[in-house]
Amino acid sequence: MVKGSHRLHALCSYFAMFPGYFARGHIRNHSAPGELILDPFSGRGTTLLESLLTQRNAVASDPNPVAYCITRAKSKSLQPQSVLDRITELEAEFVETPTADLEEERGFLPRFFKHAYYHTTLREILFLRRHLRWHTDTIDCFISALLLGCLHGERDKSPCYLSNQMPRRISTKPEYSVKYWREHDLYPHKRATFEILRRWSRFRLKQGAPQKTALALQEDVRDLSRRLPFMEGKVKAVITSPPYFNTTSFAEDQWLRLWVLGGANHPTRAGASKDDRHTSRYKYWRFIADAWRGIAPLLASDATIVCRVGLHGHSMEDVCRNMVASVRASIPSATLYGSPLLTTPSADTGRQQLSEHSQYGELDFIFRMA
Fold first, then answer.
1. Beta bridge pairs of residue 310
2. What are residue 240's DSSP bridge partners?
3. What are the boundaries of each domain within the chain?
4. What's the pLDDT score for residue 350?
5. What is the pLDDT of residues 259-309, one digit of tens each?
6. Is 246 exposed, middle or buried (0-12, 13-18, 19+ CB in 10 A)?
7. What span, in angstroms and rounded, lies between the C-alpha atoms of 268 and 148?
């Protein structure tokens, strides 16, 4: 492992249900250095990064732009000076950009943005939104991921967040945010966006990065085997966590980060992927079965699947029955290994054996190919 690599784990870490130690432990238990690890629901790229840090090869995919950007930012090794030079180049371009152009663009934004960001900070964000080529340029993608991480947060806890007081993990609704700021007499503070990006860049890359390179894709899990025919039969382990049933809407909860990456300037519903949120149990488990079907051709004959799924008010009996059925229907040679383990949010209770009365927490499943 690269010395100090823990610094990379926090890059835009606003998804908390899938910690690095969970992925790292299973990667080491179910694969060897040089073997291929897959995460078809990459989120913030935890599995991909841990695979690289433990000398595995990795491929990770997610249809959501924010998740893809963050995952891709972790997929390649970068030289710190190259990132700093690019930030300086962007800052110089910003200085030369006519103020009128950015002011005009600012004038078309909803009132939320006026309350959320100091006017000069907002102009800097608008410039970066327009000029960062995160889809095609590796360094720009890394800078975009840094921008996503500092775009909003608890300003009373850190001066490195660009916004007025907001949660770090999710983008609150505009109407609620404006009302809250007015009631608490909160105003945005001036932030030096380019300097904050430089500071975060130095911190993230200070102790080095993995030397291996991984493949990150913006792709629906159901299309992966068609997209990756050259990986057929090569995946040694799948370490992943699919979207939880009826728990969150990615497009709504991450709308501001999606906006920075070119999305709408207001919350949307189901706009980031075809399966942003399921409220029908039948459709949800059909989606999970389709997901396993989408990666089945990629699995080695002795592959292992590790899957963390949320309960959130649903009986564990129901979750276990449907998870096992979804895997067997799509990958007949896979069998459940041991009993599912319950992970609770309490540090005191920690991991537990399955209890039929629990309806909150995450269940960890391990399936092995026969």
1. 362
2. 307
3. 6-77+214-369, 80-205
4. 41
5. 999 999 999 875 555 555 566 888 889 999 999 999 999 999 999 999 999
6. middle
7. 18
What does the alpha-carbon distance between residue 98 and residue 196 come to, in Å, rounded to a whole number? Answer: 23
Q: Provide the b/e sequence for 6-43 (b: ≥16 CB within 10 Å).
A: eebbebbbbbebbbbebbbebbeebbeeebbbbbbbbb
Count Cβ atoms below 10 Å from residue 341 Cβ, excluding itself: 16
Quote the crossing angle between the two packed helices 138-150 and 65-73, to the nearest 10°. 120
CATH superfamily, domain 6-77+214-369, is Vaccinia Virus protein VP39 (3.40.50.150)
Q: How many helices (H) and strands (E) does the chain have?
A: 16, 9
- 170 near 66, Cβ under 8 Å? no
Predicted local distance difference test score (pLDDT) of residue 272 = 53
Write the DSSP string, 307-326.
EEEE-TTS-HHHHHHHHHHH
Adjacent-strand bridge partners of 39: 60
3-state helix, strand, coil in the chain (%, to 5): 45, 15, 40
Give dist(CA 40, CA 54) in Å, integer: 19
Give the integer Cα–Cα distance in Å for 241 and 308: 5
Strands 57-61 and 36-39: parallel
Q: Which residues contact 208 (CB under 8 A, 6 or more apart)?
A: 2, 3, 4, 5
By C-alpha distance, which of 324, 330, 331, 329 is closest to 309?
324
- pLDDT in the model for residue 287: 93
Which helix (H) or strand (E) is 183 found in, with range? helix 174-183
User: For the chain, what's the residue count?
Assistant: 370
Chain segment 328-370, per-residue pLDDT in tens: 999 999 999 999 998 765 433 444 444 444 456 889 999 999 7
Least confident of 56-60, 313-317, 340-344: 313-317
Q: What span, in angstroms and rounded, lies between the C-alpha atoms of 56 and 215?
A: 12
